[in-house]
Amino acid sequence: MPRQTPPPSEKPPARLSLISRHLAPVYPINTPYTVERLPDTIDTSLLPKTPFRNLSSSSAAPKMSAQPPHPTLLIPGPIEFDDAVLQSMSHFSESHVGPGFVATFGETLSMLRSLFQTTDPSAQPFVLSGSGTLGWDLVAANLIEPADDVLVLGTGYFSDGFADCLRVYGANVTELKAPVGTKPQLPEIEKALAEKRYKAITVTHVDTSTGVLSELKDLSALVHRVAPDTLIIVDGVCSVACEEIAFDAWGLDAVVTASQKAIGCPAGLSISMFSGRAMQAVENRKTPPAAYFASMKNWTPIMKNYEAKKPSYFATPSPQLIHALHTALTQILVNPIADRFAAHKAGSDKIKAAVTAFGLKQVAANPAEQAHGMTAIYLPENVKGADLLPILAKKGVVFAGGIHKEIAAKYIRFGHMGVSLLDPKRPDITHAIKALAEGLAACGYTQGQ
């Protein structure tokens, strides 16, 4: 697509409009609570006025298979997508209750059981049109009733968002927050659970704002021991398909995620798994779910019918996205899922070693609390994201700016999930590390400053 020139009446876009709003160190996010969690001073002049994609042959990343030349998207989602997944999106139009689509959707739901590592027939997968945020609404509208107490483990911007969503539906939320770059520790969680009976506890497995990884296995064991009636809810938007999640073995009650991150399917699908105990909590509600589209009572029979290869209807799904998800899951499950987790960890270790070699620090300082699908990197004191990110973009690499309100201008985020990391034919990661080194040097940074 040729570069588009703004009309004369419009001020030429600033250099940060080169690729996307991810180039801005802080940018507005369209949620009702953004102003409560982002700084008041947001320079929207840095946001793009006209999207375009134009890289010269000298600056573009290596051409990737059948996809048009484009900057390599290495943000914490959406990620780069495999050709076969994108080609699945071009499936001809078909009825959402026709036999072909019903079979595809049914297989997709069954494959999700393998992805989440559950064989419990009482567990229920859901795939709905929407973003990962819709998973919060599913939990808040269906598992929680007004005045229910919920303990939210705070690790950053997205755990704050989950707490906000729960309050909208009337939950009595207690936030147990950790300092930036870390997570609440088991002793303080145990103390909080002992002081009050909670309907649910929520944990953001990887908070995309900080790259902090929360451990689930021991946390779940603690909750089952200290508060066995408390539902264990996991925000896995930035963790499913790159961090281990053993749904049955760890006794989890809900994991909500989205299509566009490590699963490797274009954005537009809210994906979740609920335990039999969670489904029973929905059935035992004293009040109706405080939602219509997000009502699990409306969707449960639809999901069960689709998985049984029976046509069903409540609201129209996206056949093209379901085909893409089917392809992505087929690719993921062709090998043992444990191998995928190990490969993400090994790749992440190499990236983090390179970051350390550059003399840079991570927002998540403790290696045990560092995510394997992304890395949040503190900038040197003399380097600004507003300068560095456009330089990286010119080299064909797109990283994300910071969004945690306490440190937003001080760090950048490097996403390394899915094909960019796992496909040995793709030079994405090697190119990105080289570009980062060159970009820092162009900003005047020398190691050891």
Automatic annotation (TrEMBL):
Q: Which UniProt keywords apply?
A: Aminotransferase, Pyridoxal phosphate, Transferase
- Xref: InterPro entries: Aminotrans_V_dom (IPR000192), Aminotrans_V_PyrdxlP_BS (IPR020578), PyrdxlP-dep_Trfase (IPR015424), PyrdxlP-dep_Trfase_major (IPR015421), PyrdxlP-dep_Trfase_small (IPR015422)
Write down the Pfam families for this protein, in alphabetical order.
Answer: Aminotran_5 (PF00266)
List membrane-spanning regions: none
Gene Ontology annotations for the cellular component aspect, listed alphabetically: peroxisome
State the Gene Ontology BP annotations.
glycine biosynthetic process, by transamination of glyoxylate
Q: Which residues form a coiled coil?
A: none
Cofactor(s) recorded for this entry are:
pyridoxal 5'-phosphate
Q: Which domain of life is it from?
A: Eukaryota
Enzyme class, spelled out? transferase
From the UniProt record, which GO molecular function terms apply?
alanine-glyoxylate transaminase activity; L-serine-pyruvate transaminase activity
Query: Could you say which residues form the signal peptide?
Result: none
Please state every residue range assigned to the domain named Aminotransferase class V.
127-404
The EC code for this enzyme is 2.6.1.44
Q: Which family does it belong to?
A: Belongs to the class-V pyridoxal-phosphate-dependent aminotransferase family.
State what protein this is by name: alanine--glyoxylate transaminase
